[in-house]
Amino acid sequence: MLRCAIQCALRRNLPRIQYGHRFYSESEVGDILTNRFRVTVLGATGQVGQPLSLMLKQSPLIHELALYDVEGTLGVAADISQVDTGCKVCSFTGPEELDAALKGSKIVLITASGTRTECGVSEEENFLENAKIVQELSVAIHKSCPMVNLLLET
């Protein structure tokens, strides 16, 4: 739908395109039309992050997939890189690499979580731990790429 709106606006030689409440610049329009999206998965080594990363790697709309987690992303990136697609996979580990993982992304997915409920932790403690993680990630996202499309998996 967005692609159709962009193509219609380009036929009218509009300098920028409005879709919904958002305006898209010329460079963003070029990225959309040429399928050049960079997507970052925060929490890429988790039970949801790994299969999600594999599915995203297979999408023809994504040219670069950035995988971030506090540890273990190098192995996940190596496994996912074996899938023969045009999508490049980058691995980022630890808080010091979070800004680099987010830089230039059009879409950020948060799948990160702390403890799991089956480990004997109460739901309230689990919620508070996850809220802290999401808050820290959200601050970093706001600094690195404030106009990103953000998806949160809970």
UniProtKB/TrEMBL annotation:
InterPro entries: Lactate/malate_DH_N, NAD(P)-bd_dom_sf. One of its GO terms (cellular component) is mitochondrion. It holds the Pfam family Ldh_1_N. Gene3D superfamilies: NAD(P)-binding Rossmann-like Domain (3.40.50.720). One of its GO terms (biological process) is tricarboxylic acid cycle. Its EC number is 1.1.1.37. Keywords: NAD, Oxidoreductase, Tricarboxylic acid cycle. Residues 38-151 form the Lactate/malate dehydrogenase N-terminal domain. GO terms for molecular function: L-malate dehydrogenase (NAD+) activity. It is an enzyme of class 1 (oxidoreductase). This is Malate dehydrogenase, mitochondrial.
